[in-house]
Amino acid sequence: MTRTAVPRPRTPLALYALTAGAFGIGTTEFVIMGLLLQVASDLHVTIATAGLLISGYALGVFVGAPLLTAATGRLPRKTALVALMVIFTFGNLACALAPDYTTLMIARVITSLAHGTFFGVGAVVATGLVAADRKASAISTMFTGLTVATLLGVPAGAWLGLHFGWRATFWAVAGIGVVATIVIAALVPRDRGDTQPVAFRDELRIIARPQVLLGLLTTVLGFAGVFAVFTYIQPILTRVTGFEDGAVSPILLVFGVGLIVGNLLGGRLADRRLMPTLLGTLAALAVVLAAMGFALHSKPAAIAFVGLLGVAAFATVAPLQLRVLQKAAGGQSLASSFNIAAFNLGNAIGAWLGGVVIERGPGYGAVTWAAALVTLSGLGLALWSAMLDRRAAGRPALARPGERVLCEASA
């Protein structure tokens, strides 16, 4: 008697559970930007000091992603995801209850530790939930939670902070954490028995593969251009384009819509042809950044290009993540978390670069040009990686049968 295979649903419910976790994490990462004035006033620190809560979080993601992935490496992935959401929830509770600035900073860093590992492990779980031709779309579905957080969660959190105090925002985010923990525990399937834990030393060897390192560097440089501009988008729009301060928030909604569109578009295109999509999206991002330098002198064009920046920026995310996963076979959890750390390192480098251009260089109007150049450097690394692929593809044909496996592993 033959068993009839039951087709997988195109988008498993477990993917939406991961999206819920991504929404909470994305909200807590960026919402502090809309609460700086309230936090600074309540805790009696300067606005610049309050701004370090953003830097502290980013540093925690960069350092914590590989370390916490290593610490949870022998746990089943579902168990690791639930544990990470528990850390996230308690971290936000600690933020809400923080009596002083130091405690708030420590709580923010603790919360950030869950960020990189959640997205890293979650990306591996997401790709395992779908067929081989939908892996990039699965990653983009999970990252939709991050884009929706930027579009809706952050403004809602800022509104809560304005009307009920900044602590109310962190109470609300902790509530999101509770809901996400429950749905992940209920909907994400247990690991199949065919996956064996990989020793941390072996995973590090996989990270050291040339193609994995190239993928990580491509993420850092390719995405750095986005935050070189986005970090200073408010003064760029007001001082270069001439918008009033009150117009910036509605314009950022256009950016958020662009993020969602680009995220879904990048995932679908990468499912069809990964490397052409990676090269194409990085090239498109560089072009948008460069052309934005001209567009900023017209208000309608500036609004349009803010939306295009969102599309181009997040169209690169799924291809960049899937490329690293593809080249890190055997150590995907750690490599995936390293790539999330690479995104955050790119954010930090981009913000630093934009600041240098503004303070020591030509000024606000030149930030988009510098951003385009750094993204082009990421595109150059991706082209180099593609060239190595072509060389490796030609090598097995000349190798003896016993050498073929080694050639494929080195790719």
From TrEMBL:
Main location: membrane
Pfam families documented for this protein: MFS_1 (PF07690)
Residue ranges of the TM segments: 12-37, 43-68, 80-99, 105-131, 143-162, 168-189, 210-234, 246-265, 277-296, 302-322, 334-358, 364-386
PANTHER family linked: INNER MEMBRANE TRANSPORT PROTEIN YDHP, PURINE EFFLUX PUMP PBUE
Taxonomy of the source species: Bacteria, Pseudomonadati, Pseudomonadota, Gammaproteobacteria, Lysobacterales
Membrane topology field: Multi-pass membrane protein
Major facilitator superfamily (MFS) profile domain residues: 14-390
InterPro entries referenced in this protein's UniProt entry, alphabetically: MFS (IPR011701), MFS_dom (IPR020846), MFS_Efflux_Transporters (IPR050189), MFS_trans_sf (IPR036259)
Protein species of origin: Dokdonella soli
Top-level taxon of the source organism: Bacteria
PROSITE patterns assigned: MFS
Localization of this protein: Cell membrane
Matches recorded under Gene3D superfamilies: MFS general substrate transporter like domains (1.20.1250.20)
Claim: Membrane is one of the keywords in the record: yes
Signal peptide: none
SUPFAM superfamilies given in the database record: MFS general substrate transporter
Name of the protein in question: MFS transporter
Keyword tags: Cell membrane, Membrane, Transmembrane, Transmembrane helix
